[in-house]
Specification:
heterodimer; A: 294 residues; mainly alpha; 2 domains; two-stranded antiparallel sheet; globular; B: 382 residues; alpha/beta; Rossmann fold; 4-stranded parallel β-sheet
């Protein structure tokens, strides 16, 4: 076992975990940009995606190819309900109280999920088998390739959406200045709803593709949500490559930390990075500081 | 007509008064307290324990109770929170006036309430595994769950037989894992085993390939993983992913079908120490515990439509031990305590219990058998 093989293994494991963080981080960033709030229920969308898929496959015997879109739709419905019932009715709430509401919402969703399902962990079969693949001395599961592929596709699609479609451009306009956006005729509330639809769909997709590797239960959303949040913070809450790079960086650092230093410090590494960035570069690693004009 | 009605009412009233007084004459139920973490992070322990305790109490009552008196179980949910446990134990002792307490489910909750039961002089039969609960021995505290140390010895025994001396351990960073880690480190030298890698993982971690990559490049001849689901299932899958061919051992923390379901094909060949519940049907006829085991598994299936597990077994043992003690020692807390301490060769679910003045845990390493996953089921390791 050579040290270089070890390093490639750490690197690939880290990239795979990081890709998941990136997907979840993007969900955070999209809602933040459209509404100015941080949706701490994002992790619950991840959980719902995985749990709905497990239930659909196990109870109705649906083919995964059908169950996955159904689970995404169901989670998106939850996302819409969440926006309609918890966010929209509050007309002039400050972002801070909205953030607190999302925390409350996440606890509520988690509680309902615990009662609706159970407290057990559930596994999904891998999409294309469980035979490991070897790449440059590192072993990966076929599921890891799915994760990479889905992440790349989702990032590409969101790039196209935000750069070339009217709705995407309108959402970006909201992120720059909500009042100006509404003055030029953008329906801001509809954009907020869109943001919830996109990010709940994205979160559930992330939850589904990781379920064969990491398994899922009613409470997986907490930790993975925080990691996704870290990724978004490192990326400066951008809904593009910043967050993706943030996620990958976090994943690789965690993996290297666990392998080379000590696994006891794995989570500590993530949180130390988060704190450092919040202290030193609150605008994110890859963004220039914005100057405020007076 | 009118008089007849009045007579009717009068007789009904008289009858009810008579019946009521005759009920009051019958002995009051014997109150036993229960503290289980039915919700919260340790609900996987508390729920089957509460179910089993209620089931056993109902059965004892259906069979006529103990010496003609019914049992009454007053069970509360600690939510795995030591502060709650402390409040509830005082409620049981002061308001409900129970004569004995079963539970709590976790080591943390048990340790938190030891002071209270010792002061009040109420016997406690804990369902938690931590060895510190009864080591050193406390006058009023007993326990039914097997000590972690016994499981460790069972594995080390086997390793010694297989002439394996270099071992990597990977333990979860929670109460269960750190207690296992302490025992593994403390007992290794006695069996001539060297721990070449000592690594940990977080209870919510989803990828342990970094730790396993480190183990792969070490001199380890076997891996011992100490945790509860889902971590060990992830590790089993990661071991397969990395193509590691070393024998993999798990703790008794995963000895349920759930582990095989989660780990899938990656579970094949894994060896672990386990109580006898999961292999009750393949045990030899002469096994002392076979009768208790079969009846427990069957009853649980009938009442709750689920497989009885070890955790429920701890509560089964606790209630049955109390039943025996009440039969022999009477219904006062002190009488129950003294009779409990004199329990000899009680073949329960967790093992064959023999308490004494110096041992309130009552089990030996024979409480465990080694099992191996074969064709998605458990097989006994000879």
């Amino acid at each position: 076992m050579q040290i270089s093989d070890q390093l490639t293994q750490y690197l690939f494991s880290g990239l795979a975990t990081g890709a998941i963080y990136a997907l979840i981080g993007l969900g955070f960033a999209i809602i933040y940009n459209a509404t100015g709030i941080i949706n701490f229920a994002q992790g619950e969308f991840v959980m719902l995606g995985g749990m709905f898929t497990v239930t659909l496959i196990n109870t109705t015997g649906l083919h995964p190819g059908v169950a996955v879109p159904c689970a995404i739709i169901l989670t998106t419905v939850v996302g819409i309900l969440f926006e309609r019932l918890a966010i929209r009715p509050l007309k002039s709430a400050t972002p801070l109280s909205l953030v607190i509401i999302t925390i409350g919402g996440s606890i509520l969703i988690r509680g309902i999920a615990m009662l609706f399902w159970d407290k057990d962990t559930h596994a999904l079969p891998g999409f294309s088998g469980d035979e490991p693949i070897t790449i440059y001395g590192a072993s990966l599961m076929p599921q890891h390739l799915w994760i990479f592929a889905v992440t790349i596709v989702v990032i590409g699609m969101s790039k196209i959406f935000f750069s070339y479609t009217i709705s995407g451009k309108a959402m970006r306009a909201c992120s720059y200045n909500i009042r100006a956006a509404s003055l030029i005729g953008i329906d801001v509330r509809r954009m907020v709803l869109f943001a919830f639809i996109i990010s709940s769909a994205m979160g559930s997709l992330a939850g589904i593709i990781i379920a064969p590797l990491t398994m899922t239960s009613y409470d997986v959303g907490i930790m993975i949500g925080i990691k996704g949040f870290c990724a978004a913070i490192i990326g400066g809450m951008s809904s593009g490559f910043g967050t993706v790079l943030g996620g990958l960086l976090l994943g690789v650092l965690e993996s290297l930390g666990a392998g080379l230093v000590s696994s006891g410090y794995k989570d500590a590494i993530a949180f130390v990075i988060l704190l450092l960035i919040l202290f030193i570069r609150p605008q994110g690693l890859f963004k220039k500081a914005e100057t405020e004009r007076v | 007509m009118r008089t007849r009605l009045i007579t009717g009412i009068l007789s009904a009233v008289l009858l009810s008064v008579f019946l009521g007084s005759s009920l009051a004459l019958a002995a009051e139920p014997i109150k036993i307290g229960g503290l289980f973490s039915v919700t919260g992070p340790a609900s996987f322990l508390g729920e089957p324990e509460r179910n089993t305790a209620q089931m056993v109490v109902d059965e004892i009552n259906a069979a006529g109770g103990i010496k003609g008196r019914k049992l009454q179980l007053i069970a509360y949910d600690t939510q795995g929170d030591s502060t709650k446990a402390k409040q509830l134990v005082n409620k049981l002792i002061k308001n409900d006036k129970v004569v004995a307490i079963v539970g709590p489910s976790t080591t943390g909750d048990s340790m938190a309430i030891i002071g209270d039961v010792e002061r009040a002089g109420i016997p406690l039969v804990s369902c938690a595994a931590g060895s510190k609960i009864t080591d050193p021995v406390k006058k009023w505290v007993f326990k039914t769950a097997q000590n972690d140390g016994l499981a460790v010895e069972k594995i080390f025994d086997y390793l010694k037989k297989m002439k394996i001396s270099h071992v990597a351990i990977l333990t979860v960073s929670d109460g269960f894992g750190s207690s296992g880690r302490e025992q593994l480190k403390a007992k290794a030298a006695k069996y001539g085993i060297k721990l070449v890698v000592d690594d940990t993982y977080g209870p919510k971690d989803t990828d342990m390939t970094p730790q396993l990559t480190k183990i792969r490049s070490s001199q380890a001849q076997a891996i011992i993983c100490w945790g509860t689901n889902p971590g060990p299932a992830v590790i089993a899958r990661n071991v397969k992913q990395l193509g590691i061919k070393l024998p993999l051992f798990m703790s008794h923390g995963v000895s349920s079908k759930k582990f095989i379901e989660l780990a899938g094909d990656a579970a094949e060949g894994i060896i672990l120490p386990s109580g006898r519940v999961i292999v009750s049907d393949v045990l030899p006829q002469q096994d002392k515990q076979k009768k208790s085991l079969i009846s427990f598994v069957k009853d649980y299936q009938k009442h709750y439509k689920a497989e009885g597990d070890h955790f429920g077994g701890h509560a089964w043992d606790a209630i049955m031990l109390l039943k025996g003690a009440i039969e022999r020692g009477g219904v006062t807390p002190a009488g129950i305590r003294d009779a409990l301490e004199k329990t000899v060769n009680f073949a329960g679910i967790g093992g064959v219990f023999t308490f004494s003045r110096t041992d309130h845990a009552g089990l030996t390493k024979d409480a465990f058998v080694l099992v191996q996953v074969k064709n998605r089921d458990w097989a006994l390791v000879k």
